[in-house]
Amino acid sequence: MKNTLIKILFGLAILLLTYSCTAIMSTSNTVGSSISALFGSPKKIDNKITNPKIDDARLSVLWIGHATMLIKIDDKFILTDPVFTETVAFLSKRLFEPGIDVKNIPEIDVALISHLHPDHLSLGSLEMIENKIKALVVPEGGLLYIPNYDFESNELKWWKTTEINGIKITSAPVLHNGMRYGLDYDWLPRAFTSYIIEYNGITVYFGGDTGYDSTTTLFKKTAERFPTIDLAILPIAPIHPREYSYIRHTDPHDAILVFEDLKAKRMIPMHYDTFAEAYDTLGEAESLMRQEMLKKNLTEEDIIIMNIGEQKRVITK
Q1: Residue 291, CB half-sphere, CA atoms under 13 Å: how many?
Q2: In 30, 68, 186, 292, which residue has its Cα 20 to 30 A from 304's Cα atom?
């Protein structure tokens, strides 16, 4: 019954979905070199990491692509918004292949889903790594769309904390939306979140998808509750059109405002150059981020820009 309802909603609401999920909307909007990638194979990642277990790092991050980050804190692995499929919602195709092969994903202590859009909640991807995940956390209302996997699945409301395999996970509000099929907009008023990850004295903020409004105090409130964030992982795309995107998606300028509000020590940008993003061109988000860094006198120690498939040591032993 549940699967039938999902299929009906998908059929009725596909047009509405294009306006809620930028990765899908962008399929018809992408221009320039990116559009050709939609009809070919994703570009290969050279020298992929096969063993992400870095012994000399307390905190390291491997960017798999889009919002999929493999975070290692001491002996724990956290995986965010896992997407390994070649397309999302059958419509938007990867520009670059995932930054690590599924077979080389280590055992995951907890996987986190920030919201229900298909480029963040990929059921096909969760199936690929089902035997590697110990536990899954989704935002409030998210269990509606989670099948009966072998691993434990939990919902987490805003400002609530749970402890899983020794890792403290707290949900914190952001500016986005939580619908998956358009017509479920009113059912899921809070099915989108960021997460604060705490383990062994290290704190990581994962932003999922969010916009930024000059009147919002959400991120300052998060900083009040978590005054020692070691790393903020924040989206920097889609950039265009700002009149549509600003309330749902931070560009490099707005992402730095979030970073400043959070008072985090470091930031890693994400959510760009993996799928076609609205009218953005390949490389535009990174270029604009570097321009913003110059304006703010931020160094590459403050803003850690990564390539897909790259793993960086953030805190060494």
Answers
A1: 11
A2: 30
CATH number at residue 166: 3.60.15.10
Domain that includes residue 169, residue range: 2-316
56-105 pLDDT tens trace:
999 999 999 999 999 999 999 999 999 999 988 767 889 999 999 999 99
Helix (H, G, I), strand (E, B) or coil at 46: coil
Angle 210-216-221 from CA coordinates, rounded to 5°: 90
Residue 146 predicted with pLDDT over 50: yes
Could you give the number of structural domains in the chain?
A: 1
Residue 316 phi/psi, 5-degree rounding, is -95, 165
Question: Coil, strand or helix: which one is 74?
Answer: coil
Please provide residue 16's backbone torsions phi and psi, each rounded to the nearest 5 degrees. -65, -35
Separation in Å, CA 29 to CA 12, 182, 183, 276, 299 = 22, 20, 23, 9, 33
The torsion angle over the Cα atoms of residues 162, 53, 58 and 83, rounded to 10 degrees, is -50
What are the pLDDT digits (tens) for 39-59? 678 999 999 999 999 999 999
What is the C-alpha separation between 21 and 120, in angstroms, rounded? Answer: 10
CA dist 207 → 23, 39, 102, 109, 204 (Å): 17, 30, 24, 19, 10
Residues contacting 2, CB < 8 A, separation 6+: none
Structural contact between residues 139 and 155, judged by C-beta atoms closer than 8 angstroms? yes
Name the β-bridge partners of 199: 202
